Structures are given as C-alpha cells and as structure tokens.
C-alpha cells in the first residue's frame, strides 16, 4: 500500500504543471532570509586576470570564483579615478549629477540624501566597509552610513549570527602607488604585454610586471576573505561581487575615460538557493553580454536585499526583485584631475568608444605631480622630448582632437581615431547624440566650471541648486558642445552666436562664449581671418577687464594672452597673476589661473617665477579635499 502511494506521488510530481512548480519555488524563496552580500574590490586594475583570458596573469582565487560565477564582459567604472568612481558607487548617481566628478573635491548633498548603505541598514542589514572611502563630499554623512568603516570592519562583528550583512573589503595592494615602490619582481618583465600607445622599453615593461605581481597579491587577499566566508558556513547564503575600482594605475589607463581607464573586471556569484534573485542570464561559469557600470551597483545591492530604491538614484539594478532593462550605452567622465582642469565625456555601446573633449587646447598629459612619480610616465616624457616615439606613443604629449571614436574589436588599445573615417559617420553621429542627450537627462554639472558652480550655489548642495534654479540644462549642454566646435573652425554664424553669448546676462553663457572665441584663436586646425580675429579681441577685452565672474575673466584673459596687443597681453598677465593668489578669489580660480599661466608661459617667454615666489599656497578657507593642488602647481612652476 505504502509503495503504491509513493509511486503515485512520484508520478504526480513528474506531471506537476509549470505554474504550480513556479508557485512552490516562489513560496520557498519567500521563506528564505535575506541573502548576505559581500563585495570584494581592488584598486586601480582593469580585467588583467586569468579568467578574462590574460595568460600573463596569475590570479587563481579569482579564476576559481569566476568558474562558479557570472563574468561580465563589459563593466565600466564611470570615472577613471578613485574619488569620483567611489562617489558614483556610494550614491547610486553619476558623480557629474552631484558636481562631484573632480579629483578630489568636497561637494554638499541634501541632508536627507540616502546612500545605499542607509537603505540597507533600514532593511535590517549590518553594513561594513573595510575601509577606503574617498568620497567627494564635504561632510561625513556617507562615511557614517556604515555601521563600521575602518581597517578592522568585518561581517563577523554583527551582533546576531542571523542578521544579514553587507560587507565591503577593499584591497589597496594593486593601487598605482604599489607599482612604483621597491619590489622584487616575480613576473618576467620581458614577457609583459605593453599597449601600443606606450613605449615598449624596459622601464615600462618593469612597471607592468610589478602591476601583475600586485594583482597576484590582491588575488590572494580575495581568497583569504572567501576562505573566511567558507569557515563561517556562509558560502551558501552569500552573494559575492568582485570588481576593480577603475582601469589599471598605469598612465593613460587611470585618469582617462577611454575603455582602458574605465573597463573593470566584474564577477557575480549567486548561491543556488538565491538563484531567484540572479540576473536572467545567470549561469555558473558563464559570461554576460549585459553592460553594467558603477552607477548600477548600489541599486543592485538594494534590489537583492528586497528594499525600495530611492527615487534620486539613477542606476538600474541588474539582479534582484527590481531587475531592470539592460543598457545600450555606458558613460564615462573626467573632470579636474588633481591640479589640472579638464572636462571629458565618453560612452560605449560595447564595441565602439566615443570621446568628447571640452578642453582640446590642453595636452593630455599636463604635469600632475602624483602621475609623474610613476617611472613609465617619466621615461615616456623623456623619450618624447628626445623625438624617440612613434605617432601613437607621442599623442598624449600633444593637444587633443575635439572628439575620438575607436573600434575596440579592431583596435583594443584605442589608438586609431575613426572620426574622419568615411566608413563610420552613422556610428559617430549616433554616439554623439547619445552622449549629448545623457548629459542633458542627468543634469551634468560639468558644463558649469567648478569655480563658478561653487560661487553660484554658495552653501546650497550643487545638485539641489541645479534642480531648483531656472537654468535650462538642455541649453547649457548644447552650448558647451556647440561653442567648443570653434576648435575646428569659426564660421560667420558661429561668431555671431558667440557674440550673443558673450553679451548674455548669464555668467555661464559668457563663459562658454569666451571659451569658443579662445578656442578659435588657439586652434591649430584653422586660422581666423583678420576681421574675425579683431572681432574676437573686441569681445574678449571688456570681459577680461570687468566681468563679475572671476572664472569668466580668466577664460577671456587666455585669448588676450595669446592674441592680444601688448597692452591687452600685459593686462591679462596681471589679472592671471592676481587670480593665482588664493587670498583673492579662492582655490578653484587660482588653480585655473595657474593652469593658464603654465599653458602659455613658454611660448610667451614669460618669466613667472619671481611673481609667484610669494604667492600663498593656502588661503584662510581652503576647499575640502582640494586644498593641496594650488601648492602642487606653484611647486611645479617654480621648479621648471
């Protein structure tokens, strides 16, 4: 009798409807406690891992993790340097939408702003961060969003064993600083892969070999934490993320929003009993074509925890109950990089990378003190000065094109710019449009110069100021794009448009009008005729003399410095030297002025050392997290 019942039950199970099975599975998943979530993050490394097909790499622990995880082909860090990338992670917003895309800065956020650990804590999670923060915020609210945030923070410190945890372990051994310190190599430098844009010489190969050694060290640290998870019996209840925090610490990866600076490894492991939370394409040991980026990471953690996503977050969850639609494009950004003012935006569709420069007149590798401590940077510059580089290797020491387009399939090192290639006009136009529209839809605060943003916003958080002001963001983005095309030539209509901007009541309009005129003057791509040249100087002269905005005056001074008459040039010099003093208009204006002085002092045979020797390096009210960069610029200018 019992055998007959068992047989009948077995047959019945075999023929259960899919709908009923789904109902049973859903009931089982509802009975589960929330999953633990572990993030393993490493500093300054791209996908140079064995599991990504790199035969030079030695990363056994991550390779093993990849064998039971989903490996993402394309994950971008959004920013190619620590602080803005981490600002994007903790906020679930593009750093450009907060005014926090610069390296480094301290911007205010609204008091009621929720970072993703705040949301997870409200959902009952024990949240720890071990230990790097480097958030571009003026206060400690983001740091205080963690239960523990220090070098001893650990999921083992939760008060109850049944409390779910969200824990981050960040490994700094692969940081840029660790590929240039004293070290005995394990990897053979003669076998190190060197990208086409760098000189293939011993110094460069040695730095790459040490970088790979550090990845092996980092891999062991990841293995140690995974072992602790196993020892505590938590492997089957913990979802694991592993990712690098931006591209490698080698020059032209870190700091630059090329694929080389933004592409990071990303592995996602979901235990069997939480497979209902996994991405739809999840397969242990599989590979995902879905494109994700850092802005999506925090929202995905919230989704996995079963919590509600704050409305201000811009990221799209790619797993969990809130799993959203996949993206057709990812976006990147570069703002001021330490002491060097810049603005670059980029996007990718997975195969092509499009890059738009808003300061094409400034060379790629303007001197940054921290970057020039790397031996590769030093030998690279030395070889350029000696005329020993080819065209691809020389590029970073020259001014930029307005835009770049690369085919990663044919050109993974991004050295062959396809902008002028007649075979790619449709792709170029499509990516231009996507990037421009993204800047509008996300309220990209980069179109307002950093100094002017702080002047206009005052003590109001830049994001709140931007959203509550009567500024037309479509107009601002279009203006930044359209005025900078003067780098490639100035038509009569474009000159008229710039004239109108220079006469606007808006300081932001006047800034971009002034920038357009200055780019037309500086451009190596086209020469202004006599009438246009004279018209440009007539517009710039009164702005440089008396505009209410210091940053607009500085921008006008650059054009007069290069193309003005003797009187205009001398006045521009005096103004920029005045602005270089932080006690006059603050650090952000001083940084801009010192950048402009450095950009043109040699061509003008301008001896600035005597004038700068007594300039103070810090004022009475230095900006949070950006107080040392004026000092760095002054040190460089006085020594070179």
What does this structure look like?
- With 640 residues, the protein is α/β, with parallel strands linked by helices.
- Helices cover 41% and strands 10% of the residues.
- The protein has helices at 2-14, 18-31, 60-67, 82-91, 116-122, 141-144, 202-231, 259-262, 297-304, 375-385, 391-394, 425-441, 450-457, 462-468, 473-484, 492-502, 507-522, 530-546, 550-563, 566-579, 582-585, 587-600, 609-612, 629-639, and strands at residues 36-42, 70-72, 75-76, 126-130, 148-149, 165-171, 238-244, 263-264, 266-269, 286-288, 292-293, 330-334, 344-348, 352-357, 403-407.
- An 8-stranded mixed beta sheet has the order 5-4-6-1-7-9-2-10, sandwiched between helices.
- Strand 13 (344-348) and strand 14 (352-357) form a beta hairpin.
- The N and C termini lie far apart (97 Å).
- The model is unreliable at 1-24 (pLDDT under 50).
Counting helices, strands and paired strands, the structural category is alpha/beta
Q: Round the mean pLDDT to the nearest integer and report it.
A: 95
Q: Report the portion of residues in β strands.
A: 5-15%
Helix amount, in percent? 40-55%
Number of strands: 15
Q: In whole angstroms, how far apart are the ends? A: 97 Å
Shape: globular
Figure out the total of helices: 24
What does the main sheet amount to? 8 strands, mixed
For the largest beta sheet, what order do the strands appear in spatially? 5-4-6-1-7-9-2-10
Rg, please?
A: 27 Å
Q: Give unreliable regions as ranges.
A: 1-24
């Amino acid at each position: 009798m019992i055998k007959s019942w068992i047989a009948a039950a077995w047959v019945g199970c075999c023929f259960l409807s899919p709908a009923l099975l789904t109902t049973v599975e859903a009931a089982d998943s509802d009975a589960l406690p929330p999953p633990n979530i572990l993030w393993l993050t490493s500093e300054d490394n791209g996908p140079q891992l064995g599991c990504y097909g790199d035969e030079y790499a030695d990363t056994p622990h991550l390779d093993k993790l990849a064998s039971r995880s989903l490996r993402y082909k394309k994950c971008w860090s959004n920013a190619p340097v620590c602080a803005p990338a981490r600002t994007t992670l903790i906020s679930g917003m593009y750093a450009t939408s907060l005014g926090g895309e610069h390296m480094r800065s301290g911007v205010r956020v609204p008091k009621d702003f929720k970072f993703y650990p705040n949301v997870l804590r409200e959902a009952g999670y024990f949240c720890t961060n071990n230990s790097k923060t480097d958030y571009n915020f003026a206060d400690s609210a983001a740091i205080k969003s963690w239960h523990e945030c220090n070098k001893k923070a650990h999921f083992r410190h939760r008060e109850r064993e049944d409390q779910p945890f969200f824990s981050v372990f960040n490994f700094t051994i692969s940081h840029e600083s660790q590929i240039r310190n004293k070290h005995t190599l394990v990897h053979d430098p003669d076998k190190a892969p060197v990208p086409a844009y760098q000189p293939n010489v011993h110094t460069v190969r040695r730095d790459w070999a040490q970088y790979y050694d550090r990845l092996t060290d980092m891999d062991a640290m990841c293995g140690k934490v995974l072992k602790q998870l196993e020892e505590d019996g938590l492997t089957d209840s913990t979802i694991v993320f592993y990712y690098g925090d931006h591209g490698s610490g080698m020059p032209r990866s870190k700091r630059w929003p090329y694929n080389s600076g933004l592409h990071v490894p990303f592995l996602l492991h979901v235990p069997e009993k939480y497979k209902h939370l996994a991405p739809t394409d999840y397969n242990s040991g599989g590979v995902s074509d879905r494109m994700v980026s850092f802005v999506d990471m925090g929202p995905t953690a919230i989704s996995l925890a079963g919590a509600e996503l704050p409305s201000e977050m811009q990221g799209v969850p790619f797993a969990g109950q809130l799993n959203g639609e996949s993206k057709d494009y990812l976006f990147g950004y570069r703002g001021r990089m330490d002491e060097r003012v810049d603005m670059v935006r980029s996007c990718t569709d997975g195969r092509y990378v499009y890059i738009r420069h808003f300061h094409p007149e400034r060379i790629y590798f303007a001197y940054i003190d921290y970057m020039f401590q790397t031996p590769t940077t030093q030998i690279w510059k030395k070889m350029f000065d000696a005329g020993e580089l080819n065209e691809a290797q020389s590029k970073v020491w020259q001014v930029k094109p307005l835009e770049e387009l690369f085919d990663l399939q044919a050109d993974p090192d991004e050295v062959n710019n396809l902008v002028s290639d007649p075979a790619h006009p449709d792709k170029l136009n499509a990516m231009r449009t996507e990037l421009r529209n993204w800047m509008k839809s996300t309220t990209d605060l980069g179109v307002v110069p950093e100094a002017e943003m702080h002047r206009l916003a005052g003590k109001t958080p830049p994001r709140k100021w931007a959203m509550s002001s009567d500024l037309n963001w479509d107009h601002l983005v279009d203006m930044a794009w359209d005025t900078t095309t003067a780098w490639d030539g100035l038509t009569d209509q474009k000159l008229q448009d710039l004239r109108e901007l220079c006469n606007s009541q808006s300081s932001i309009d006047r800034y971009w009008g002034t920038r357009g005129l200055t780019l037309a003057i500086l451009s190596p791509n086209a020469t202004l005729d006599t009438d246009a040249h004279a018209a440009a100087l007539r517009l710039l002269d009164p702005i440089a003399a008396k505009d209410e905005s210091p940053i607009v005056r500085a921008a006008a001074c650059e054009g007069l410095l290069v193309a003005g008459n003797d009187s205009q040039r001398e006045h521009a010099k005096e103004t920029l030297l005045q602005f270089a003093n932080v006690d006059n208009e603050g650090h952000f204006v001083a940084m801009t002025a010192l950048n402009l002085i450095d950009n043109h002092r040699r061509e003008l045979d301008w001896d600035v050392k005597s004038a700068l020797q007594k300039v103070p390096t810090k004022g009475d009210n230095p900006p949070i997290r950006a107080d040392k960069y004026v000092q760095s610029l002054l040190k460089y200018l006085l020594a070179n």
